[in-house]
Amino acid sequence: MKMPVLLGISAIAITTVLAGFAIAQSSGSVQSLRGAELEDTRAVDGVHKQIEGRMPRNYRQQPPLIPHSISQYQMDKRTNQCLSCHDWAVAGERGAPTLSMTHYLDREGNQLDTVAGTRWFCNQCHVPQANAPELVGNDFQSSSTSR
Q1: For residues 22 and 115, what is the distance between their CA atoms, to the nearest angstrom?
Q2: What is the domain-level CATH number for residue 110?
Q3: Which residues span the membrane (predicted)?
């Protein structure tokens, strides 16, 4: 008695999945969520050259850009290779900028000896500076030039 019921449920499930695939394939091309046409895509090189030296910040409290490649850096829940140079304990001897003290504050504002978990993944805010084309048109002006 159980076997015919299982076969019937399996047949219905398979039919539903196949019908879903057929509908998805015939629904047409991908549309923009805004309803506007997407601009032409731009060809982008796979590798962009790093810009040497530090780039100026464009606005107050902008996270600094990273002036070196981080492609081989390990950053996971146990390891953050950025801290091998930028942690306050070693930055002076490595000649690297020290992290802001805000990186050592927990959510309640208590000062910690290690980087807070909310600031552990550096590339949430900091990105490598590279000579790459704009992906989206932009007319942003630095706060120091727009006065």
Answers
A1: 51
A2: 1.10.1130.10
A3: none
Instruction: Give the domain extent around 126.
Output: 49-133
* Strand, coil or helix: 130: strand
Task: Tell me the Ramachandran region of residue 61: left when phi exceeds 0, alpha when psi lies from -120 to 50, beta otherwise.
Answer: left
Of 65, 68, 111, 114, nearest in space to 89 by CA: 114
Radius of gyration in angstroms for the set of CA atoms belonging to the chain, rounded to a whole number: 25
The answer to whether residue 65 scores a pLDDT higher than 60 is yes
With respect to residue 81, please indicate whether it lies within any of the assigned structural domains: yes
54-66-133 Cα angle (round to 5):
85
Q: Kindly state whether residue 1 falls inside one of the protein's structural domains.
A: no
Distance CA 130, CA 29 (A): 33
